[in-house]
Amino acid sequence: MAAEDERNKNLLQEVWKKKENAMCADCGQPDPCWVSCTLGTFICCECSEIHYKIPNISEVKSIKKSCWEESQIQFLAQHGNALAKATYEAHVPAYYYRPSYNDCQVLREQWIRAKYERKEFLEPKKEVLYSNGLKEGILWKRGRDNELYQPRRFLLSEKERCLKYFVKEDAKEPKVEVKIDTVNAMFQTEKMRHSNGLQITYLKH
After folding, report:
1. What is the pLDDT of residues 78-96, one digit of tens each?
2. Alpha carbons 115 and 125: distance in angstroms, whole number
3. Tell me: the pLDDT tens digits for 129-174?
4. How far is Cα of residue 189 from the mean position of the Cα atoms in its chain?
5. Where does the chain hold its CATH 2.30.29.30 domain(s)?
6. What CATH number does the domain located at 1-117 have?
7. 51: exposed, middle or buried (Cβ count in 10 Å: 0-12, 13-18, 19+)
8. How far does Cα 7 stand from its chain's mean position?
9. C-alpha separations of 95 from 16, 18, 92, 130 in Å
10. Which residue of 26, 37, 98, 193 shows the fewest CB atoms closer than 10 Å?
11. Which residues form the Arf-GAP domain (predicted)?
12. Whole-structure pTM value
């Protein structure tokens, strides 16, 4: 048994050393030390945490700490990061931002879910919600005085080139309507004291 484990470990090392698998399949971080057994990709520790959230799609194992079966290694050898990229990133729109390992976790999570969970880039010209000119959703806004977070409805319109903010979800009129060319949005995790903290600023006319 020990001899078989050592043999499988050596086989895995050979697949791992391939140039295409030298960086995380999702964020490009060098020397990934985790694997998605079901997708056949080599990924970094941070991205593996996101894959853990979609166990029905991605089964994650550690390269160094997990036990490996020969069939799993053969699957990795037949797939790998290059094939996954050619498949799941075949039709990424030119305007779509591909996060790197320097970006925050929320950007990487949306990128990973878009590729593997929603499969947005498998087919050419597949219309998705963010490309039809209108995006509406709920963001948790921190209060200016009490710093409590409350759900607020935001609407982003390409046609009107503006961002609208509604205090109540069923409100007909926005509290604030801002032109897109005056908006600046940045992730400020330390300032907001939240891992997904987003600061939106704009110029008042």
Report:
1. 999 999 999 999 998 877 8
2. 15
3. 556 677 888 888 888 788 788 889 999 888 888 999 898 888 889 9
4. 17
5. 134-202
6. 1.10.220.150
7. buried
8. 35
9. 31, 30, 8, 11
10. 193
11. 9-129
12. 0.67
